[in-house]
Write a structure and sequence with these properties.
The chain is mainly alpha-helical. It has a domain at about 1-70: Multidrug-efflux Transporter Regulator, Chain: A, Domain 2, CATH 1.10.1660. It is about 75% helix and about 5% strand.
């Protein structure tokens, strides 16, 4: 079991962020006898997944919807599948766009390297003649 500060450290988050996720019903921590939040390994794994969704630019509204589906139970499996498939399609479009941009940058960089090498080669030839 983890306290809120321990979990925040493990996830490299602030305790404020964990409280925000709780308010938004993305995570529901357990409470100890003193009423303090306590988190299990399942909470840790869930939040690691949530952070990956966030890193992959899933909007918080979609993350909340997914979390709600999970809380509702197995009868929402198809809705969860659809939500994740839609986001995966978005990610794949982003990857294609980034790959195209990378190819353009690669060509531009190669062009600059060639110009610099030609300039340096011409300078060396000029120096050799003098």
């Amino acid at each position: 079991m983890y306290s809120i500060s321990q979990l925040a450290n493990l996830l490299d988050l602030s305790t404020y962020t964990l409280r925000y996720y709780e308010r938004e019903q993305i995570v529901k921590p357990d409470r100890n006898s003193q009423g303090n939040r306590v988190y299990s390994d399942l909470h840790l794994q869930w939040l690691q997944f949530v952070l990956k969704l966030k890193e992959a630019q899933m909007p918080i509204v979609q993350i909340k919807k997914y979390a709600q589906y999970v809380l509702e139970g197995e009868h929402t499996a198809e809705a969860r599948l659809n939500l994740l498939q839609a986001h995966r399609a978005f990610i794949q479009q982003q990857i294609e766009s980034l790959n195209a941009t990378d190819h353009l940058l690669e060509a531009k960089i190669a062009g600059y390297k060639k110009k610099i090498e030609q300039k340096q080669s011409s300078a060396c030839e000029t120096n050799m003649k003098n």
